[in-house]
Amino acid sequence: MKLIGLSGSQVGSKTRTAMNKAIIKVNERYPDIETEVIDLAEYSMLFSDGRHYLDYEGDTGYVTQQLMAADAVIIGMPIFQASIPGALKNVFDLLPVDAFRDKTVSMLVTAGSPKHYLVADLQLKPILSYMKAQIVQTYVFIEEKDFHQKEIINTDVLDRLDRLAEDTVVLSQTFEQIRESQYDF
To answer: For a designed S-S bond to 93, which of 48, 66, 110, 124 qualifies (C-beta 3.0 to 4.6 A apart)?
Structure first.
């Protein structure tokens, strides 16, 4: 099983900090799972121009191909202007419509205010559903006050990240078992 942690912003550190914690929790509980963090801040991504994702080279080709090869994805995003970051939306635009078919996708969200709690429900989940993801229904919402000096200081958030890691892996493994039993692999 391959799990990608996608930190979906080109700026800031809180989403990356939370993603690192989530991936550490996956690695602690499931050491046999291959994991990778893709932080969009570290890649030079082209804007989607309608080409097939395999036609992109460089960082854009690498990121899209890694996401397509994953069995599960944890998407992390900050809230900008009460919306998902443009860098993350661009990644979705680069991928095929059914890019998340047979993939489990979970979410963690960082925000400066609790006023943005529903952005994931109202904006991210519809995109993921359209792209055929098996969505972990609960997500981790982390506010500015939960961080101090680039560390998460709220133990409740850490517990929720632990649960997110477990739910992502268990749901992915369950769907894999169901598919295998249907096709008698």
So the answer is: 48
d(CA 144, CA 135): 25
Provide the residue type at 108 as one letter.
Answer: L
Q: Which helix (H) or strand (E) holds 67?
A: helix 58-69
pLDDT along the chain (185 residues), means of 10: 97 96 97 98 97 97 98 97 96 98 97 93 97 97 96 97 98 93 74
Which of 132, 121, 37 has its CA nearest to residue 92? 132
Q: Which two tokens stand for residue 123?
A: 């904006």
71: three-class secondary structure by DSSP: coil
CB 142 within 8 A of CB 118: no
CB-based burial, 20-37: b 16+ in 10 Å, e otherwise: bbbbbbbeeebeebebeb
